[in-house]
Amino acid sequence: MHYQEITPYSSLLPYIDCYWSIRTGENVANRSNRVIPDICADIIINAGEEVQVSTNQRYLLRHGAAYLTGTMTTFQDTILTNNTHLIGIRFKPFGMSSLLNIFLQGAADTITETEKSVFNLSVLSTRQSLVSIESLNKYLISRVRNQNVDRYNPIIGTILEHNGNIPINELAHDHCISERQFERLFQTHLGVTAKEICNIVRFQHAFKQIKNRKHESLLDIAYTSGYYDHAHLTKHIKKYSGQSPSSL
């Protein structure tokens, strides 16, 4: 398997985290590739053979189609087979709504084929390839109009700065938004609550700490990551990664 991440044009960085691709060759054994929540949403283009993705249900991604994956609140398994070729656009929180006017309310943990009216794959295709990074950059730059992302990105920045450990009322107050408006903003644009985003960011921080630990105990990591105790840490690690902390 070959996995690659590519940085978009600088003018797209407020909206897009990266482009990514996964490829396999011929005569490879089927393998499962697990993806964990990262507070982003993706558009995935299948330029290879049909691919199966499992979350709370099973999805089949057919060749030549583009799919929208909502904000993830649990892990996702992709079965990689011969000649798999997936190309993804990983949108930052609020990036998809600001750039493509796609709102993710009700889309958490789902995968749906995109409509041409919101993401027209045919305009990106050439005789040589279904899609290229260059064509994606040009297409998405043409959509840069909505500057709401300049208001929203600082909110995510504050959550990341605190590793998810900040009360929602404090977060709303710091950004001069009422709590009710704040929750509506997250549900409409991201399809999940602000608390869920904070929980995922906290999980990501703890997950990295566990993977890279040398001498720290899991209890120490639980406390430094903002969890009440070892059991609280274990519950979140299992929810988001499907594994126990000791097995990472």
Automatic annotation (TrEMBL):
Keywords: DNA-binding, Transcription, Transcription regulation
Alphabetized SUPFAM superfamilies for the sequence: Homeodomain-like
Limits of the HTH araC/xylS-type domain: 150-248
One Gene Ontology MF term: DNA-binding transcription factor activity
InterPro entries with a match to the protein in the record: AraC_XylS_family_regulators, DUF6597, Homeodomain-like_sf, HTH_AraC
Superkingdom to which the source organism belongs: Bacteria
Family annotation (Pfam families): DUF6597, HTH_18
Designated name of the protein: Helix-turn-helix transcriptional regulator
Organism: Xanthocytophaga agilis
Classification of source organism: Bacteria, Pseudomonadati, Bacteroidota, Cytophagia, Cytophagales
